[in-house]
Design goal:
By secondary structure, this protein is an alpha+beta fold. It has five helices and eleven strands; from the N terminus they run ααβββββαββββαββα. It is globular.
């Protein structure tokens, strides 16, 4: 087993970087737009996503990302596989079910390691829990085209390179926001997915520093 996995199994049971790491990749209003709402209301939908890790042929750890189909919520954006929990379903079950439905990942090959900090997404009123999972080989993907346009994987260490992070001013909801994003695809990796990913990468940095 890759050394990262036992590290995460222990580390995810401890205090996490949380909002401090998440907010580093949040769009920042420049000219009067609203600051991102981080606290969920009492009536919020529970959701989860799967941060799925696997080692490549060089024993470098990769994670799985999807490009969402244009006809669904957050269409045309990069995200982790996931969605809203169904009645009576645990958040782990939700993440595994959605990964199966969206990109054909069998739950039987995924070992759940734990969770990182939940993130409130006000646009859809979802409280999203990122569930971290591991499989010992690259999965066979089967895309559901009604939900996913593309599935791809990136090496974790490539996400640590500052040269892959760009900051631009975008017009969002009639205001200008300063938006940080990963420039690793023809579509920018930004917003809620970037915020969740940044917390996970803080833990990966801890692992790298511990090894060195």
């Amino acid at each position: 087993m890759h050394q990262l996995i036992p590290f995460l199994e222990q580390r995810l049971s401890q205090s996490l970087p949380g909002k401090k790491a998440q907010i580093e990749m949040a769009p920042e209003p420049v000219d009067g737009g609203e600051i991102r709402e981080m606290e969920p209301p009492p009536e919020v939908n529970k959701s989860s996503v799967l941060i799925l890790l696997f080692p490549n042929e060089d024993d470098e750890m990769e994670l799985v990302l999807t490009l969402r189909s244009h006809d669904i919520d957050h269409g045309g954006q990069i995200s982790f596989p996931g969605g809203r929990a169904e009645k009576g379903e645990s958040l782990h079950q939700t993440a595994l079910r959605e990964a199966k439905e969206e990109i054909g990942i069998s739950p039987d090959i995924v070992t759940i390691i734990g969770e990182i900090s939940e993130l409130y997404v006000s646009h859809s009123n979802n409280l999203v829990t990122p569930v971290v999972g591991f499989t010992d080989r690259r999965p066979e993907f089967e895309i559901n085209p009604t939900e996913v346009e593309e599935v791809f994987a990136v090496e974790l260490h490539s996400l640590l390179h500052k040269k892959n992070i760009t900051v631009e001013d975008w017009d969002l909801h009639s205001y200008t926001y300063r938006v940080p994003y990963w420039n690793l695809h023809q579509v920018p990796l930004w917003g809620a997915t970037a915020m969740m990913l940044n917390e996970f990468l803080d833990l990966y940095r801890e692992f790298k520093n511990k090894k060195s």
